[in-house]
Design a protein that fits this description.
By secondary structure, the protein is mainly alpha-helical. The chain is built from 10 helices and no strands.
Length: 212
């Protein structure tokens, strides 16, 4: 009997997940077009093609749906750089290069993502539920950079380098370059941006990032 129930249950679960994802993407589109302050359930449903009850069914409220939008983008971003870093292999300099390349990949650094990201950032002070997902001091990214910098310092050796301060510096530069993309997407040069970060890496860790 359990076997006969399994297929319909899987189908229901897939439909539920599809509707949930559709609502998240529709809400993101509404934020992009109208701004976060002007997003309404009606505007979300217009894009999703779903009934009003679906928001309550999957998220209980518009506020919860909006939190899930920013959570979704944050989780995608983290999964992207973590996968790039893991694929780079064990050498810390390769992991750092992969992390930097992933940060400027169009899959995560694009107009849609940046518009949504900045919209939620603008509301984070009055809506603290957004803060864990838009924090420029994300603990996971900081830990990854600190670990890499710690390994590079030991290998150098580079006794004058403070891994924690170096990690913060990398994150600050990446943050600034993302803001540059947000303001000037048509003029933004991804290769030049990567070059800026690797130039700083060369200053901290010259033996590992010597010019080719």
């Amino acid at each position: 009997m359990a076997g006969t129930d399994a297929a319909p249950r899987r189908a229901r679960d897939l439909t539920k997940e599809r509707h949930r994802r559709t609502l998240i993407e529709a809400a993101a589109d509404a934020v992009l077009e109208h701004g976060l302050a002007n997003v309404s359930v009606s505007r979300i449903l217009e894009r999703a093609g779903l009934s009003r009850g679906m928001v309550n069914l999957h998220f209980q409220s518009k506020a919860n749906l909006l939190v899930e939008v920013v959570r979704h983008y944050s989780d995608d971003y983290v999964a992207h750089w973590q996968a790039a870093m893991e694929a780079a292999g064990p050498r810390p300099e390769d992991r750092l290069r992969a992390l930097v390349a992933a940060d400027f990949d169009p899959a995560v650094l694009n107009r849609r993502m940046m518009a949504v990201w900045m919209a939620f950032r603008g509301e984070a002070q009055v809506s603290p539920a957004y803060m864990p997902f838009i924090d420029s001091r994300d603990a996971r990214l900081k830990a990854a950079f600190t670990r890499i910098c710690t390994e590079l310092r030991a290998e150098g050796p580079y006794p004058a380098v403070d891994p924690d301060l170096a990690a913060t510096a990398f994150m600050a530069v990446l943050e600034g370059l993302w803001n540059d993309f947000h303001l000037y997407p048509d003029r933004f040069d991804r290769d030049a941006a990567r070059g800026v970060v690797l130039h700083m890496a060369r200053a901290f860790f010259p033996r590992h990032f010597a010019p080719a």
